Amino acid sequence: MTLLHISDTHGLHDQLTDLPAADVIVHSGDFTLDGSEKEAIEFMQWFCDLPYNHKVFVAGNHDMCMYGADKVEGLPDDVHYFCNSGIDIDGIKFYGMPMFMEYAMDGTYEQHIKDIPDDTDVLVTHQPPYGILDGGEYKGQASYHYGDYFLYTRVINVKPKLHLFGHDHNAYGSIEQFGTAFSNAAVVDEHYKLKEIKYLTYKI
């Protein structure tokens, strides 16, 4: 199975060209810029029409209109929205959790991380794990970390084959540690402009 990973398109999804072939495309959140329902619908229409056998996505912190929607009605059978949920695709266990500020404020974010199943093969989150493809400048801090330490500890215990995320626009790329391939696929820069990138694909 080949996976294509993209993230943080922020409304520019229709400007992505020459997407490579894959069995599954995964978008790890921030498909909107302002979090409006209109933006989300436009993204989902584009995403549903892509020529992949399966299409998987989670919401990011910009995608506020998705908060409270555990499921998205009317999606085709080959399109899967994960909100602290997952599916088995050809024997590969996918699981995804969104990143909503409400989770951090009401104290449920850590519980959702705890609920990541032990047998997850492909984990999709919006936020990175602390210290892995999550470092960038923020308000003058040159070594600011966008990742979550509790997520880091959960991932190194679960040891998924792949952990796919975005959120930090300055850390595009992939790295392998602890037996897991980590992937940050944020396709825009800190000014929300598309970067020149080589798309990230993985075989699993």
UniProtKB/TrEMBL annotation:
Organism: Prevotella lacticifex
PANTHER family: CALCINEURIN-LIKE PHOSPHOESTERASE DOMAIN-CONTAINING PROTEIN, METALLOPHOSPHOESTERASE
Name of this protein: Calcineurin-like phosphoesterase domain-containing protein
The organism's place on the tree of life at top rank: Bacteria
Domain Calcineurin-like phosphoesterase positions: 1-170
CDD domains referenced in this protein's UniProt entry, alphabetically: MPP_239FB
Molecular-function annotations in GO: hydrolase activity
Pfam families noted in UniProt: Metallophos
